[in-house]
Amino acid sequence: MTTGSPGNNTPLIEARGLHTFYGDSHILHGIDITIHKSETVSLIGRNGMGKTTTLRTLIGLAPPRQGTIKVHGRDIKKSKVHKIVHQGIAYVPDDRGIFPNLSLYENLIMAARSGPNGRDDWPLSRVLDLFPRLKERMGHMGNQLSGGEQQMLTIGRALMTNPDLILLDEATEGLAPKLRKIIWAVIKQIKKAGIATVIVDKDIKTLLEISDRNIIIEKGKIIYDGDSEKLIKEPEILKKYVGV
Amino acid sequence: MQKITKPVQLFLLIALGFALWFPSVGDEFYVELLINIMIIAIFAMSLDLLVGYTGLVSLGHAAFFGIGAYGLGIFFGEMNQYSIWAALPVSLILTALAAVVIGWISIRTSGIYFIMLTLALAQMFYYYFFESKLYGGDDGMFISTKPDVNFGSIQLLDLGNEHTFYYFTLGILVVVFLFLVMILRAPFGQVITGICANEQRVRSLGYATQRYKLASFVIAGTLAGLAGFLEAAHTGFITPSYLGWHESGNILVVVILGGLGTLYGPIIGAVALVLLEDFLPDITEHWKIVLGMIIVCVVLFLPNGISSLSGKIFRIPSQIMKTILRG
Amino acid sequence: MANMSDNNIILRCQGLSKSFGALKAVNNVDLDFESGVVHAIIGPNGAGKTTFINLLSGELQPTEGQIYFKDHDLTNASPNKISQLGIGRSYQKTNIFPKFTCLQNCWIASQSRLKTSMKFFKSAHRDMEVMERAQRALELTHLAMKPEILAANMSYGEQRQLEIAMMLATDPELMLLDEPLAGMGSEEGAEIIELMRDLAKTHTLILIEHDMDAVFAIADQLSVMENGILLETGTVQQIRNSKTVQEAYLGEEETA
Amino acid sequence: MEFSFYLIQLLNGIQYGFLLFLVASGLTLVFGIMDVINLAHGSFYMIGAYLAFWLTGIFGSLFLGIVLAIPLAVALGFVVERLAIAYLYKKGHLHQVLLTYALILIFDEAQRFLWGNDSHGVDIPAALSGSITLTDIQVYPVYRLFVSFVCIVIGVGMFYVIQKTKLGMTIRAGASNRQMTQALGINIERLFTIVFSLGVGLAAFAGMIAAPIDSLYPGMGDNILIISLVVVVIGGIGSIKGAFVGAMIIGVSSIFGKTLFPSMASIVVYAMMAGILIWKPQGLFKSA
Question: Searching chain A, which residue's CA lies closest to the CA of residue C211?
Answer without folding.
Answer: A243
